[in-house]
Amino acid sequence: MSFSLWKTHSEPGQAGQVYMVMAGYAAGLVMGALAVAKAPMQRWQSIVALIAFAFVLFKQRTVLPFDIFKLEIGAKLMGIGGYAGLIFSIITLAKPESSK
């Protein structure tokens, strides 16, 4: 079984969906980069990252959560990235760094 995000892009009416998934990953990346650049990670950054990664996993719901291990490497990495981002944003939301 194969799943390719970019192959989905070429299907009629699906280009916007692909760009929304990419935007979700980008939002999580930007929040992480902001936290690294200017520590500590703010609570709003954790919330934005949580929403972004939850959105990514929601958009990939047809192949996740358990089918991820039956797919090719690209889909596995997308799923693992989404789950890891979601878990780490929950951790940073539950236990934010203390202000200096």
Distance between the termini: 50 Å
Q: Kindly state the mean pLDDT as a whole number?
A: 84
SSE string, helix = H, strand = E?
HHHH
Number of domains: 1
Task: Please identify the oligomeric state.
Answer: single chain
Portion in helices: 55-70%
- How many helices? The count is 4
Major beta sheet, specifics? none
Provide structural commentary.
With 100 residues, the protein is mostly helical. It has one domain (5-94). The protein is 67% helix and 0% strand. The radius of gyration is 15 Å and the shape is elongated. The N and C termini lie far apart (50 Å). The model has no long low-confidence stretch (mean pLDDT 84).
What tags apply to this protein structure?
4 helices; 100 residues; mainly alpha; elongated
Summarize the structure.
With 100 residues, this protein is an all-alpha fold. It is built from four helices and no strands.
Blueprint of the fold:
Elements: H1 5-9, H2 15-37, H3 43-59, H4 73-94
